[in-house]
Amino acid sequence: MSDDDRHPVERDEAATSEAVAEDEGRTAGAVAVEEANRDDAGRGSTDDQDPDAWGLQAKIFGAIAVFMVVIAVVYWFMSYEAAGTTFLAVSALMTGVPALYLGWPRNRGDRAAPQVHHEPGHDPHDGVWFPDASIWPLAIGVSMALVGNGFLLGRWLLAPALVLLAWSIGGMIRQGRHRL
């Protein structure tokens, strides 16, 4: 068995990197820098990037929003029902917001934050902390639902629900302090 057969990945690294550069027009280092410079919508800041890169997604959301508006108008004139028309209008609004967000032009040059260039292969989000698995968000959600029901059904449910809510919030705070 030859050395090329045992390590096919290392066989011709120079030719492989040249092929990647030819196929994509960029190197692995350029890809890592581009990933590190993306904004919250995933757009890059390089000048060679297509300025309308997110245009298709914006057009899809916009088309759905327009469709929902048309359906709301047709529904209103067919049924004269306010609730269904309102739900359809809110649906149009909920799809219109992402369309505006994705379609809105961004100028990243006016940001004051310094651009950090990471080495290829390093994740730019290495320092991000995510909380451990916890029961407290579920406990807070359940206690909030009980508080809402307490407002509807009476004080007999509201008082224990508020105690449970306070206990749940306290538990989440205690768990958060363990990280420090």
Automatic annotation (TrEMBL):
Q: Where are the transmembrane segments?
A: 60-78, 85-104, 153-173
Keyword match rRNA-binding: no
Q: Where is the composition biased (Basic and acidic residues)?
A: 1-14, 35-46
Q: How does it sit in the membrane?
A: Multi-pass membrane protein
The UniProt entry lists the main location of this chain as membrane
Subcellular localization(s) per the UniProt record: Cell membrane
Asked if the Swiss-Prot or TrEMBL record annotates the protein with the keyword Membrane, the reply is: yes
Could you say which EC number(s) this protein's record lists? Answer: 7.1.1.9
Q: Which InterPro entries would you find in this protein's record?
A: Cyt_c_oxidase_su4_actinobac
Cross-referenced Pfam families? Cyt_c_ox_IV
**Sorted UniProt keywords:** Cell membrane, Membrane, Transmembrane, Transmembrane helix
Protein name, UniProt field: cytochrome-c oxidase
* Organism from which the protein derives: Iamia majanohamensis
- List the lineage, top down: Bacteria, Bacillati, Actinomycetota, Acidimicrobiia, Acidimicrobiales
